[in-house]
Specification:
By secondary structure, the protein is mainly beta. 4% of the residues lie in helices and 40% in strands. The chain contains two helices and 42 strands. A hairpin with a 6-residue loop joins β25 (331-336) and β26 (343-347). The longest helix is centred in the last third of the chain and has 20 residues, at 549-568. The radius of gyration is 45 Å and the shape is elongated. Mean pLDDT is 75; it is low at 1-35, 40-48, 50-57, 533-556, 558-583 and 586-592.
Length: 592
Amino acid sequence: MKIGVHDVQSKVVFIAKKEVMVNFVLPRNVNGTYGGVRMKYRRIPKDVCKSSYETFEIEDEIQSPGFPDNIGANSSCEYYIDVGPFSLNDVIQIRFRELSFGPDDTLTVYDAKSNTVIFGPLIGPQRLIRANTTKSTSVKIVVETKFVPSIKQRYFILFREVPRDSCVLDYTGDYGGKFSSLDRPCVYNIRLKHSIQLDFKLNGLYVPSGGLIKVIQRSKYSEDTTLLSLDNDDTGKTRYFRNDPSHDVIEISASEHVRFTVRFKRFKKDTTITLRNPNGTILSPYYPYTYHFKAFADSTYTYHIEVPKGRVRLNFTKLSLYVENRYLSDDLFVYDGKSRDAYRIWLLRTNEKYQLPLSLLSSGNHLTVVFRPMWSPKWKSVKGHVFQFEAIYSSEFQVKDCIAFDWPHSRAERNVTLPGRETKFFCNKNYVSGSYFKDVTRRCGFHGEWEEGRTLNCLRVCPPLDEKLKENSSLSWWYSTFSKGEVYDGVYAYFSCNYYKEQLVGPKTITCTSHGNYTALPPICKRKPKRNSDYGSSGNDGWKYGAGIGGTVFIISIVVTVLKVCFGCCNCCSQGNSAESIPMSQVKYSQA
């Protein structure tokens, strides 16, 4: 029965009501051969498997009956594809654009001449969909479906005529998968939906001398980008990469005799690993290889550790993190609890060096480790360096805590400190540390004893010699040490006046004592009398007041008597008697 005659630009659509053989013969090729595709349908009841077919040149497609609607219940379809007698050097390549099956549905591809299975059967839902060059000139595709409610059952198959030595495999990577290379030159395409990112791992690498593996991401909307280019130096190594979400095809091309296995999965910015064994190990991403990959930066890896009983003891045995400078580095935090809301036990400080093994201990049976690698353009300068960490955790039952030091006039951040943690010690009110550090941090060892460190020495603070003295006096002073505005036990002050116009009356120095007061009252500055130039006076630079040596002695004795009285009773000195001094009882404590 003749169904129709057409040229290469036309299309034929028909429904076969009985078994027929259809030949599509194309014009002569450039090399003098003819191209063509022959397709044969098995007769199928109309109410079971309605089939339609469109053809255009030597590449075409097969859709499930009623596509994109679901297949009818309990359907059975067979498709025969033949390259024809005019293309003896070509074979059939089959690619699945969509393959949505129920759990009992199957698809099998046979060699139509020998009736041997080429690949399949593909059973149930197919997340990994592939293309395969059959090396056959005639194939049979058999699809068997069962009725499954609420599940999509449909397929979309592409086939074309390709040279016999062609090798192109297609996969869909929306959900992840795994495949290995063939022992011949081949191109492996992983097709993705737009805006989907996958994490890829290439291992089992063998690249012979002169061989090459190239990974390219393609998109019809942007330029191609090369992700990896591997040669013989990469044999035995493992390589990781991640595609850009704006590209929808990952092409892996391999030369002859190259071997590899590729695994891929959906990228998750936040990766969580839960460990519930009594003991175990946490490892940096891609350990024992470096986590130092541009594609995996700015992600978060969270390790939740839970032991059945006791406390969690965590020992870092390897710790090599990327540090760019004192402000930029990879972040590694340890929290005492089930989440990042718990107390933070430890974090990596970029300006500190740690002696391994580094041990940490939880207060309960939970511990959380959070790792956030950063990315920097300077990574190229550390190429070849391995960045990684390894930590072993175990259950700890006998734990001895550290009791806070009973240093005088001080208080601790906590009275009891767990091994592996730090506690700060502060001075009480009206006391200050006599060193540059206002507080001291000590670490509790795992034997219940404090590790070596500084001791906090708290000293009593005296009232400061503030601006109130300057308001009533030209007195100047400075301290014996840099005290940041605080005068404490042992610090003394030097005093001076204007040498040419005034004289200092009182002690040149006073010292702060452990009782919070000074050893003496501050001195005062007295204006010097004008010199007498008359020859009738003493002739030895006597005072203008006319007082000779005896008068001078008399005045000094009066000043000394007043100072003794004031030193014995501060409140006895009247402010009205000296506008150039202020009673110490009115000198307030510093607000600092």
